[in-house]
Structure formats: structure tokens, C-alpha cells
């Protein structure tokens, strides 16, 4: 589920930096950043995760006209997946999916004005039994972010895990 | 200011409080900025009644982001060449997190001096929530 076109904007970088509690002026002050080593505003190291905003099919965003798993009148707009249901059942996928690992390689740091495109390659998948959450199903994806010139700027490797039950303790 | 190879050594550490008494509102803020609206992070009714957790919990990527601040505050802006973490325990509203980074190696990589760094973020009970590694480009 890659973002085909992720325009990097200064206001988005500002909001993202605020959300992680980082007041560093390199993320918000044009005058400070221009005089700094970077020569301009850059994005925080984990900002590229916000490419989800530009992924048309991103599952964890409510979409007009489609059921949403979050609560309204009921606790969920979609019944959660039952154990044993097929993996591709489009149900309460948020309830049991957790992020296990995230790794970035920075070929350069991204800036306002960059227009990135992402390509995703599936990686390995494996299973593990755990005491705290039952059977764990891990799957890896590698996302390559390229800029408007086609240059590779960030390589991201993500490991997700589906847990059998809520994690205890 | 970036770190310089001439004034750091393997074993040097940097530690800071990343957040005190994490607020649910910050989870909402992170959801809005990142675009990850998974209701387990913001929807008390969904997370308790459907997902089976005691309350909402933080996006792993929020903790990675806060831990990233610890690194960039130390090594300098735009200096990271690699940064990766494992999410080892959940982070809950009310948690106070402290991150600690340590230089594990200083070496040459394609003619550039870099530092390898290990990083761990723990909660108020000293339970690790994120562990990871990073590599940063140093001044000579």
C-alpha cells in the first residue's frame, strides 16, 4: 500500500514535529534552518511514516462511504475478526495488528518541496508463540522512498505482527 | 551542534526524559499528523470493548519519534544515516519515558567517520518500551 505521490510540506513537518513533542527549530523555522548546516528545514527522522496520509488505500484511515472499525453508536462499525477467520477478511484489522520493528536508512534527509513516491516489496514472514499474546504472525515489508528525480532517499523496513489476543501485562 | 569524533568516545551516553505523564491528547495529535487513525490509539470504547485492552495505548511510532529526538538532540540535525527500533512493550497514557543512547563504535564508513549508537527507552518502572540502534555521521 504505497503512497504514489507524497508531497513533503513545511506545515506538515511542523505538525508532525509538534505531535512527537520536538520543538527543534530545524523543523519549523525557515530563518534558523537556512543558517544551519542543513541549509533549510528538514523532516524529523520518522516523518516519512506520514506517507500514510497520501496512500489512497491506507487501511487505518476512515474513508467516505466505507465502514470504519472505530466506535460510534456501537463499540465498532465492523465486527472484529474471529480466530480462524481468513487473513484477508476485511474486518477489525486494527484490533490485533501491532508494529513490531521499524528501521530506516537515510540516503539523505527529506525537505519541504520534495515529492516522494514509495514502492513496497514484501519481505519475510514468520510465526512465534508467545505467553503474553498467543500465536504471533510477523510479516516484513521494505519501502523505498524516491524523490522527484528518482533518487532513493529513504529505505524503510517495517515488521508488523498480528497477535492472537490482546497483549497481557 | 553535531558531535565530533575528537570529543566523544565509545561508552559515552546521553539520557533525557522524553515525555512526562503522556497525555491521550498527544496520541490524538500524533494520529492526526501521521495519518495512523487506528482506533486502538484514540478510541476508548473500541479499545476496551472490542480490542480488549485496558485503555488506549501509544503508537509505537510516537515512541520511536520521541526517541529519535533524543538522538538528533545529541548527534545533530541531519546526521543520522540509520535508525531502527524494536517495539518491546506498550506505552500507555500516564507513562513517563526516559531514553538513553550510548556510543558503541566509532569507525570509518566509505571515508566518513560515523558513530554506532544503541538506544533504549524505558518507562517509569524501568521497563524497556523501545530498543534500537542508530548510526550518525560525525565531524572529524
Can you lay out the helices and strands and say which pair or pack?
The complex is a heterodimer of chains A (169) and B (140).
Chain A: E1 6-7, H1 10-19, H2 30-35, E2 97-106, E3 115-130, E4 134-146, E5 152-163
Antiparallel strand pairs in A: 1-3, 2-5, 3-4, 4-5
Chain B: E1 13-19, H1 24-34, H2 44-49, H3 60-75, E2 80-87, E3 97-109, E4 112-122, E5 128-137
Antiparallel strand pairs in B: 1-3, 2-5, 3-4, 4-5
Strand content of chain B: 35-45%
User: Helix content range of the residues of chain A, please?
Assistant: under 10%
Report, as a whole number of angstroms, the end-to-end distance of chain B.
13 Å
Multimeric status of the protein:
heterodimer
Strand order across the largest sheet of chain A: 1-3-4-5-2
The assigned structural class of chain B equals alpha+beta
* Weakly predicted, low-confidence segments of chain B: none
Number of domains of chain A: 1
Average pLDDT score of chain A:
89
Question: What is the general shape of chain B?
Answer: elongated
Relevant CATH superfamily of chain B = Hotdog Thioesterase
Rg of chain A: 19 Å
Largest sheet of chain B: 5 strands, antiparallel
- List the total number of helices of chain A: 2
For the record, what CATH class of chain B applies? Answer: Alpha Beta
Gap between N and C termini of chain A: 32 Å
Strand content of chain A: 25-35%
From the spread of the alpha carbons, the general shape of chain A counts as globular
Amino acid at each position: 500500500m504505497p503512497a504514489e505521490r507524497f508531497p513533503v510540506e513545511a506545515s506538515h513537518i511542523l505538525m508532525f514535529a509538534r505531535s512527537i513533542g520536538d520543538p527543534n527549530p530545524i523543523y519549523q523555522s525557515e530563518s534558523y534552518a537556512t543558517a544551519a548546516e542543513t541549509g533549510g528545514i528538514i523532516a524529523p527522522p520518522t516523518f516519512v511514516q506520514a506517507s500514510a496520509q497520501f496512500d489512497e488505500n491506507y487501511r487505518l484511515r476512515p474513508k467516505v462511504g466505507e465502514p470504519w472499525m472505530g466506535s460510534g453508536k456501537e463499540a465498532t462499525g465492523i465486527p472484529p475478526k474471529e480466530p480462524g477467520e481468513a487473513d484477508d477478511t476485511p474486518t477489525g484489522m486494527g484490533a490485533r495488528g501491532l508494529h513490531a520493528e521499524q528501521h530506516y536508512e537515510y540516503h539523505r534527509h527529506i525537505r519541504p518541496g520534495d515529492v516522494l513516491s514509495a514502492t513496497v516489496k514484501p519481505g519475510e514472514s514468520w510465526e512465534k508463540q508467545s505467553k503474553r499474546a498467543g500465536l504471533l504472525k510477523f510479516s516484513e515489508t521494505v519501502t523505498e522512498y524516491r524523490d522527484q528525480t528518482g533518487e532513493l532517499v529513504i529505505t524503510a523496513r517495517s515488521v508488523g505482527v498480528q497477535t492472537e489476543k490482546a497483549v497481557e501485562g | 551542534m553535531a558531535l565530533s569524533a575528537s570529543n566523544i568516545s565509545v561508552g559515552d551516553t546521553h539520557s533525557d526524559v522524553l515525555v512526562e505523564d503522556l497525555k491521550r491528547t498527544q496520541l490524538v495529535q500524533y494520529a492526526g499528523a501521521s495519518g495512523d487513525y487506528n482506533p486502538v490509539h484514540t478510541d476508548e470504547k473500541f479499545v476496551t470493548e472490542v480490542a480488549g485492552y485496558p485503555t488506549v495505548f501509544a503508537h509505537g511510532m510516537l515512541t520511536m519519534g520521541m526517541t529519535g529526538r533524543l538522538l538528533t538532540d545529541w548527534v545533530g540535525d541531519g546526521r543520522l544515516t540509520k535508525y531502527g527500533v524494536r517495539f518491546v512493550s506498550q506505552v500507555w497514557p500516564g507513562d513517563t519515558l526516559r531514553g538513553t543512547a550510548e556510543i558503541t563504535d566509532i569507525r570509518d564508513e566509505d571515508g566518513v567517520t560515523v558513530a554506532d549508537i544503541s538506544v533504549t527507552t524505558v518507562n517509569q518502572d524501568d521497563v524497556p518500551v523501545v530498543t534500537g540502534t542508530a548510526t550518525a555521521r560525525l565531524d572529524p
